[in-house]
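Hi R.,

Here's the input for the protoporphyrin IX containing FE complex you asked about:
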Amino acid sequence: MSSIFKKALVALTGLLLIGFLVTHLAGNLYLFGGAKHFDRYAETLEKMGPLLIAAEVGLAAVFLVHVGLAIRLTFENKAARGGTGYEVHENQSAAPSRFMIVSGILIAIFIVLHIRAFKFGPREEYGGSLYAVVMNAFAHPGVAAFYMLSMLILGSHLTHGFWSVFQTFGLVKPAKRDKVRKVCALLGWGLALGFLTLPLFGLLKQDKTEKGLEGAVKKLTGQAEGATGGLASADRDAR
Ligand code: HEM
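And here is the predicted structure with protoporphyrin IX containing FE in place:
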């Protein structure tokens, strides 16, 4: 496979992943509408059954091709430069691709932790509500901060990624370079900051749900204590 073809495939799979991100963000915005809307959205997705599984397998395949080829290209470029001579030139051209590989690996780590926390999260502990799983996670400052930081890394990866797509397919006229770069930044940061609003919302709203039996007991104990306190003060007032 020629390196031009590999580059084109990285760009194409990157665009497909961005397509997923746009639909994922659009769906996740239901979080602002509360449990009823978000859980209904999750249910609609799940009702798709085999179609959803096919989409997930396709997404995983696209993701693996994107990551696999990007890593291979990085190593091949490094080997082609040979590491001898042309110090300045090597550093200049290697910097963006080194940045993309590092931010890409960090995003991959984020995705693994994210799927584990949400897709395979403790949903039954929250009465089956995906909204409760997400909002309880984001209510935790550490989790929200991890998400927001990951979204900043995603923003710079997407901005560089968009720019690479234009370059790979030779779509930029020299006179339009600055303008195109600005559009890439707008798209990349727009998408990432859209996602960033969600953990921020969860952190500020603190819409926590107590877990399962333990939560129910805590809630009842709290109510009982409140009622006893109320009775005691009513008794005191009456006397
Ligand atoms: C920051 C806000 C985000 C929220 C609130 C969020 C929420 C969710 C939820 C609730 C699920 C589980 C869906 C289900 O089980 O039906 C999920 C799955 C997933 N998310 Fe996110 N997500 C966010 C950002 C991202 C980002 C930035 C990426 C990629 C870089 C991403 C990639 C994925 C993937 C690949 C899945 C698995 C999809 C599937 O198998 O159906 N998410 N997300």
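One thing worth noting: The pocket of protoporphyrin IX containing FE is lined by residues 24, 28, 42, 45, 56, 107, 111, 114-115, 118-119, 130, 134, 147, 154, 195, 198-199 (CB under 6 Å).

Cheers,
M.
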